[in-house]
Design goal:
This protein has about 270 residues and is of the alpha/beta class. The chain has a domain at about 5-160: LmbE-like (Rossmann fold). About 40% of the residues lie in helices and about 15% in strands. The protein contains 10 helices and 7 strands. Strands 3-2-1-4-5-7-6 form a 7-stranded mixed sheet, sandwiched between helices. The longest helix is centred in the middle third of the chain and has 17 residues, at about 135-150. The two termini are about 15 Å apart.
Length: about 270
């Protein structure tokens, strides 16, 4: 069985982008390790969710552990850099934030954490971090440098299928008026606009792997639900129908940077291939 490291930027990133794949690998007997760069201190908490005196980073750590347990993750580690916030935020100037981290120092910290592990496959973000978040971009940079230094042969970039997202959101928008879900339509419209941006996700032609996680869709939804400080119970993720949820989240997309998928060539369905 293989050891697979999923390197994410913040608690909840694992739930949204790779939870189904993580659950599937764990169920197949593989050793899944979740490495997280920050504790998500700069996130925006759902109003009223934090307990009196509770720090957001502490709460998000608890939520990540809960999510990881649901997915069958065997080991969870934090690099413990400060959350950088969004690219245009003044928090990206904080010398303690991940965006400002020296790459070699970050690689050294990562290497010490996972010393003794034989990593067969490393999963990081695409070069733009999916949607341009500085911590996601830094995960790509640090993960790439680390893999080069220790000789990890197999790397996959988790990404967003820009073309598929537009199609599924358009479908959900057509069906939403019949659901009576207040606010979901506006949320979908905003997501559609983001999906149309050239810097959001990857074009389908660039993607090499499409992992069907429909057998683990309940675990993925439970993983998302675990992050109560970030994902309101009335959010798009949790209010759409099970059918819509499966359509949007039932496939997870990856790129093998060493391969180019030819026109009309099918996606690979096994992350190791």
């Amino acid at each position: 069985m293989a050891t697979v490291v999923f390197f994410h930027a913040h608690p909840d990133d694992e739930a949204l982008s790779t939870a189904g794949t993580m659950a599937a690998l764990s169920a197949s007997g593989h050793r899944v390790i979740l490495l997280v760069a920050t504790r998500g201190e700069e996130g925006e908490p759902v109003p009223g969710v934090l307990r009196e005196g509770e720090l957001l980073g502490e709460r998000r750590t608890e939520e990540l552990i809960k999510s990881a347990n649901l997915l069958g993750v065997e080991r969870v580690e934090f690099l413990d850099y400060r959350d950088s916030g969004m690219m245009d935020s003044p928090t990206t100037s904080n010398p303690e934030c991940f965006w400002k981290a020296d790459l070699e120092e970050a690689v050294s910290r990562l290497d010490q954490l996972l010393q003794g592990e034989t990593v067969d496959l490393l999963v990081i973000y695409d070069p733009n971090g999916g949607y341009g978040h500085p911590d996601h971009i830094q995960v790509h940079r640090v993960g790439t440098l680390w893999s080069d230094q220790i000789g990890i042969e197999e790397i996959r970039w988790t990404t967003l299928n820009r073309d598929a997202i537009k199609k599924t959101i358009e479908l959900a928008m057509r069906e939403t008026p019949d659901t009576g879900l207040a606010g979901v339509g506006e949320d979908l419209e905003e997501r559609k606009k983001r999906a149309e941006e050239g810097s959001f996700g990857s074009a389908e032609s660039e993607i090499t792997h499409a992992i069907d996680v429909s057998d683990f869709i309940d675990k993925k939804k439970d993983s998302i639900s675990a992050h109560q400080s970030q994902i309101d119970e009335d959010s798009f993720f949790l209010k759409i129908s099970d059918e819509q949820f499966s359509a949007v989240f039932g496939t997870e997309w990856f790129i093998n940077p060493k391969e180019i998928r030819k026109d009309n060539e099918p996606f690979k369905a096994n992350l190791f291939n």
